[in-house]
Amino acid sequence: MTNSLLALATNVAHNVPLTGSAVLVHFGRACFVVVLGYALLSAAKAGATEQEDKVPKQAFQCGSCGKGVQRGYVQAMGKVWHPEHFVCEICNQNLQGAAFIPHEGRPYHQHCYLDQYAPRCAGCDQPIEGRYLTAIDQKWHLHHFVCATCERPIVGSKFVEKAGHPYHEACSAKTFNPRCKICLAPVTDHYLTNFWLEAFCQHHNEELQQCYGCGRLVSEHLTNNGVRFEDGRTMCNLCRRTGIDSLRAAETLAQKVATIIADLGFTLSRTSFPLRLVDQLELTQAGTHGEQINGTTQMAIETLNGEVVKREIAAILMLHGLPAESFAATYAHELGHVWLFQQHFPELPLQVEEGICELFAHLWLINNPGPWSDYLIHLKERSTDPVYGEGYRIALRSLRHMNPAELFEFVKKHQRFPNAPNPAHSSAP
After folding, report:
1. Contact 179, 185 (CB under 8 A)
2. 45, 39 in Cβ contact below 8 A?
3. Cα dihedral across residues 117, 121, 126, 128: positive or negative
4. Which range, of 13-22, 71-80, 263-272, 318-327, averages the lowest pLDDT?
5. Which among 56, 135, 255, 343 counts the fewest CB atoms within 10 Å?
6. DSSP 204
7. Is 87 exposed, middle or buried (0-12, 13-18, 19+ CB in 10 A)?
């Protein structure tokens, strides 16, 4: 929050005559008495006899010890004092001829009083004498109220308080605000962050393309730019580092995924299937649908006299150029379709089948933890797709009440998720 500088104390010193030979001087809240002279009667001093004749014959009482003063004395603060008793209340040093400040009937050296009672500067922690200002619930020497970053004065301008220290608004932004990962400037009060907790100026969201893989805005500083595929996708160079572009790399990673899925208890009678890398256009032509589809499983169906006599996995189509993490999760999803087929599941409602296959991807991700797994789960949890997103969330809720084997057995028997209405059947792609 931006604060305005509080009122500056500007009291000008002024003189007020006192009894005897003293002057009261005000500086802000502090005051002190300057002794212009003192009366000391002593036989050892020249002229003492003449001064002594003027002293009343009765005894005066010392302002310190209360005993009578018969001969020499000091007169100050409307009292008389034994010369040896007119001392600073703090340091106990004699005050004759020195400036002092009266406080509650006792005298103090000016510096002793200031050290003990004067307000202290929040900037230097030294006593304040004279003018000062109040800000951030503290008192400051005028020359010490400066920006903690640039050390330039703040008097007369707005400032921002951070941990008890003042900053110019611009300096506060440079010091404390996160820097935009795209243009490297300190972000203002209005900025955005992506899943990766990278802050950026709001206007970049309308200017730049979003990476198909990681969701970042493709830019020089954030992603080292990127590439645009012929099918219209933009992929940043961070994702391109692990992009699956060759069939050999795809088959190697696919076999790894199949092995881990089997280790999780989902044994496949066959783990290797024809694999093709395609673009989005071909995926669309293959009948895929949804917000962001990265793969599909194709079935080969043989009929005789209108009756299906043979069904088998024809191929698994995967979107080329996917980051390795996204490729693996997608392939785990497609292996879910393969497993359902090999386990002779009946034809399931689309939301149910895709929800189960999204569980396969989920099981892969939680068994391969890391930032990318967190990101992909994040996308699934927030997907607005009524088939993939909602199917995933319903399936995940079912796992709270039963293990995967029990869940899949229930679905195989009832063609629905537990505690869910019986949905209308529709064909899966």
Report:
1. yes
2. no
3. negative
4. 13-22
5. 56
6. H
7. buried
Residue 97 to residues 40, 65, 291, Cα–Cα distance (Å): 11, 20, 91
Which DSSP category does 6 fall into?
P
- The dihedral sign for the CA sequence 393, 395, 396, 401: positive
Residue 57 pLDDT: 42
Look at strands 74-76 and 79-81 and give their pairing: antiparallel
Average pLDDT of the chain, as a whole number: 80
3-state secondary structure of 270: coil
Tell me the C-alpha distance between 170 and 392, whole Å.
47
Three-class secondary structure of residue 262 per DSSP? helix
Give the helix ranges, DSSP H, for 42-147: 48-54, 110-117
DSSP code for 98: S
| Cα atoms found within 13 Å of the Cα of residue 383, Cβ hemisphere only | 23
Q: How far apart are CA 166 and CA 288, in angstroms?
A: 59
The partner residues of 11 in beta bridges, in order of sequence, read none
Q: Tell me the one-letter amino acid at 397.
A: R
> What are the backbone dihedrals phi and psi of residue 207, each rounded to the nearest 5 degrees, phi first?
-100, -30
Give the bridge partners for 159, in sequence order: 3
Q: Region 299-310: what's the mean pLDDT?
A: 73
Tell me how far apart the alpha carbons of residues 122 and 165 are, in angstroms, rounded to a whole number: 9
Angstrom distance (rounded) from CA 323 to CA 144: 55
DSSP 144: G
The predicted structure's pLDDT at residue 290: 63
Closest by CA to 68, choosing from 76, 77, 78, 58, is 58
Give the pTM: 0.63
The one-letter code for the residue type at 140 is: W
CA 60 – CA 85 distance, rounded (Å)? 14
Beta-ladder partners of 15: 25
Which tokens belong to 104? 């509650």
Closest CA to 165 of 175, 178, 156: 175
What's residue 392's pLDDT? 95
Fold of 30-117: Cysteine Rich Protein (2.10.110)
What's 421's DSSP letter?
-
Q: Where are the domains of the chain?
A: 30-117, 191-240, 247-414
Q: At what angle do helices 350-366 and 324-342 cross, to 10 degrees?
A: 130
* Calpha distance 19→102 (Å, rounded): 13
Question: Which candidate, 152, 153, 125, places its Cα nearest to that of 139?
Answer: 125
How is residue 38 written in tokens? 């003192």
φ, ψ of residue 25 in degrees (nearest 5)? -120, 125
pLDDT band at 288 (very low <50, low <70, confident <90, very high): low
